[in-house]
Amino acid sequence: MTHAEEWRVDLYLVEEDGTTRARAVLDNGKTTITGSGRARCNPQDVDVPAIGEELAAGRAMRDLSARLMRAADKDLAAVGAVPVPPRTGYGWPDDARPGG
């Protein structure tokens, strides 16, 4: 049986005084997960807002990804499907090995 869902990610960026802050919000219709990131322009560098936006957004998405994986780990643990520690990757144990 096919199952389809749409998950939405909104990305919010604010730049102020050489610092860009980003917030990535995942909404799957049941819950939301939020990741955050920031980037600061070195005072000796040329201020290029697009670079700060890219860095802050990437960091927010990386934080969101880590939070989503931790949520998946909790759900796996709830059904007894967590590999024995130490945990080096996500998903099934073969995912952690090169070529796995």
Order of helices and strands: EEEH
The largest sheet is: 3 strands, antiparallel
What is the overall shape?
elongated
Radius of gyration: 18 Å
Structure summary, number of beta strands:
3
What spatial order of strands do you see in the largest sheet? 1-2-3
Q: How would you describe this protein?
A:
- The two termini are 27 Å apart.
- It is built from one helix and three strands; from the N terminus they run βββα.
- 30% of the residues lie in helices and 27% in strands.
Features:
100 residues; alpha+beta; 3-stranded antiparallel beta sheet; 3 strands; elongated; DUF1876 domain-containing protein; Rv2632c-like; Rv2632c-like_sf
How would you sum up this structure in a few lines?
The protein has 100 residues and is an alpha+beta fold. The protein has one helix at residues 49-78, and strands at 8-16, 19-27, 32-40.
Secondary structure elements and pairings:
Blueprint: E1 8-16, E2 19-27, E3 32-40, H1 49-78
Antiparallel strand pairs: 1-2, 2-3
